[in-house]
Amino acid sequence: MMRHKKGPKMLESTVENVISTHNLKANLSKAGDTLSSLDRWSVADIVALFELPFSDLINHAQTIHRANFNPNAVQVSTLLSIKTGGCSEDCGYCPQAARYHTEVEAEPLMQLEDVLAAAQEAKNNGASRFCMGAAWRGPKQRDLDPVLQMIAEVKAMGLETCATLGMLKEGQAEQLKDAGLDYYNHNLDTAPEFYGDVITTRTYQDRLDTLGRVRSADINVCSGGIIGMGESRNQRAGLLAQLANMERPPESVPINLLTQVEGTPLHGTDELDPIEFVRTIAAARITMPNSFVRLSAGRQSMHEGIQALCFLAGANSIFYGEKLLTTGNPEAETDKKLFTKLGINKI
Ligand code: SAM
Ligand code: DTB
Ligand code: SF4
Fold first, then answer.
1. Which residues have CB under 8 Å from 71's CB, separation 6+?
2. Is 97 left (phi over 0), alpha (psi -120 to 50) or beta?
3. Of 52, 73, 63, 77, which is closest to residue 25 (Cα–Cα)?
């Protein structure tokens, strides 16, 4: 099979060359190829994408998007925080860390019937996937057992299942798989070089190890990060390079815009220019042509015009429902109107 060598040359290439390079790349990965060293994305390649004139970047991303997905279909998942607050970790963005003084109060794990009622409501509202989040460093076995039951019963309702429970130990991913888990969310959050400015209680490698366990257990990988934490453009590109260069890139890539919460260390960070956020979505689409790119946290304060640009740039999944984990999300009615206005169908 023909291989196309990428590299620093791309920095000088015309937009047309860029498009053909990546169409080829999309076709290769469509054929079920894994990335060879020749197909790896350098951070410089990705920065070069960010630096394209905006219209060229969007056109490029939309072309790749159309080659791989229905451009008018967006997958919708609903989130539920099954265990809120009181977390031992120090993630600088997170209102659920026990050490920061936010309005979030620690609560015990939810009861099964309450979780199932929320899942039923999500299904009735048209969500195809239900994602259960827990404010844990990672699950202890006594925590995991009731969550396995939740997963099995949500799955039996005809919903796809997703969980985000923190770091997984050896053997835990297999238990989740056996219970019927379709996706596990665990974000790299940012580039390796910026990571230590945001989190100190777990390492980048810890996160990669958890993702490796999820992959080995044959659960779909959902992994992305947060933009707008004060990172540089190079570091935004660095996060995408980490994700795109995985042996198999994640099936689902959430791109969160930092939701600034009072009491967290990142509250008061300079707001990111919305166009830079759209560029990040476009670069994610181009570098991971077969992944669902999720326009995640941050939509509540995002103008619908910017959201429309994100869809044009290749975002094709969202969180749907009034709440994310502890912070707000647009009302379901507002999203329905936006989808109607844009002619988008829910998956
Ligand atoms: N405790 C588990 C963990 O950290 O893996 C699961 C839940 S944690 C809240 C899931 C993800 O939500 C984080 O990795 C982070 O990317 C995202 N997140 C948390 N707080 C956020 C915020 N204020 N703004 C944007 N994204 C946020
Ligand atoms: C992801 O990347 N974003 C979601 C989901 N995965 C779990 C969480 C966003 C959380 C935003 C802050 C909150 O609501 O607490
Ligand atoms: Fe805890 Fe997850 Fe929040 Fe980090 S992101 S403090 S691990 S709940």
1. 62, 65
2. beta
3. 63
The β-bridge relationship of strands 220-222 and 183-185 is parallel
The pLDDT tens digits for 45-93 are 999 999 999 999 999 999 999 999 999 999 999 999 999 999 999 999 9
CB 313 within 8 A of CB 61: yes
| Residue 293: strand pairing partners | 253
Q: Is 310 a catalytic residue?
A: no
Catalytic residue among 202, 213, 222, 279: 222
- Decide if 236 is catalytic: no
Q: 258, 325, 326, 329: which to mutate for ligand 1, most atoms within 8 A of CB?
A: 325
Place of tokens 């990546």: 22
Q: What percent of the chain has pLDDT over 70?
A: 89
Mutate to test the pocket of ligand 2, among 78, 325, 326, 327 (most ligand atoms within 8 A of CB): 325
pLDDT at 24 over 70: no
pTM of the model: 0.93
Q: Which domains occur in the chain, in start order?
A: 66-346 (3.20.20.70)
Pocket of ligand 3 (CB under 6 A): 87, 89, 91, 94, 96-97, 135, 137, 166
The whole-angstrom separation of Cα 93 and Cα 76 is 24
Write the residue with the smallest CA distance to atom 5 of ligand 1: 166
Closest to 176 (Cα-Cα) out of 189, 165, 190: 165
